[in-house]
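Hey, quick one: can you model this chain's 3D structure?
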Amino acid sequence: MGFLKSMLEGGLLILSLSGLRRSLDLLLKILQPRRLLQLSLKQIKSSLSDFSTDLESAEAVAFNTAADLDENAKYGITSSEEVFEEYEVKDKTPAVVLFKKFDEGKNVLEGDITEESVATFVSANYLPLVVDFTSETAPMIFQGKIKSHLLVFVPADHEKHDAIIEEATKVAKDYKGEVLFVTIDTGVKDNNRVTEFFGIEETEIPTFRLTATTPNDMLKYKPEVEELNEKNFRSFLEKFKAGELKPHLKSQTLPEDWDAQPVKVLVGSNFEEVALDATKDVLVEFYAPWCGHCKQLAPIWDKLGEAFEDNDKVVIAKMDMTVNELENVKVSGFPTIKLFSAGGNKEVDYDGGRTLEEFVKFLTPDEEEVEKPAAEKDEL
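Sure thing. Here's the predicted structure for all 380 residues.
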């Protein structure tokens, strides 16, 4: 029962449900029917609390349901008259109040109390207006209900750090619940992976980016003006809301020898010209340098390139997807192999075997055999 931990603090049983989604069925068996224990005035200072005179009301049930699905905030419920008077909700019950140790100190849910409204209320107010990116906050940032994030990349010890955060906070107040502002300390080694993901060079820092997460992708936007001040933040977000920004796609610099070998090297800037050449069938391996399966495939892929080196109707290519991005081609794993066929550039996912013979058969289904590379002949 490592996912369920309980601590008794002054009569309050706090349930830590860090593994709730993974173990929901088991958890429901243990807690069903679950009831949030009542909080005293002393205990209510650091939680999300429901003030209700009727603990079986529809509002209390909705609050309880929202609590079951949230792994982050602490929830409590109270029907104490002393608490009602202290927080001036005696004539306004039921009420939901979020208590916190930053920004405003507390927030009160306006409108109807439903499971959805409580969840939305928590997402908008649980984190600071400008939140630091850490391993603890990352899930709350990127798995929360707010799907747009303005990320500020600046070392904590940078001379302009505090001034930049102050400028960002001014704008964050107006986009609360819509865009989450996040600071990423680029002086922390573990955060290098984030800057690499966005293709940010050290010489560009401090800088910022905007992300918009969709069900199938994360769109990234890069500002044309790099100034980190209120005016530029506002201008950039206004253009985003108006649909005037185009997603920023990473691309390597095109190597001078990209076509010197049988296997052609693709980057963002030459992908369409090569892969979408309507006169040729182009088979592309989308890979990551660290991928073990990609490393195993590499020698076979080189032989495949040699096999079709003199075929003017077929191109064998590869693309490093850790440093390149494409707007209309999405890759979810490595290696991913796709054929862009001659004629209409139809995109076909390859899901066959990964031997040289199987690749050759896939590209030439009507031919018995393609001339083997000279090196392979020698081996035979």
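One thing worth noting: The chain is about 30% helix and 20% strand.
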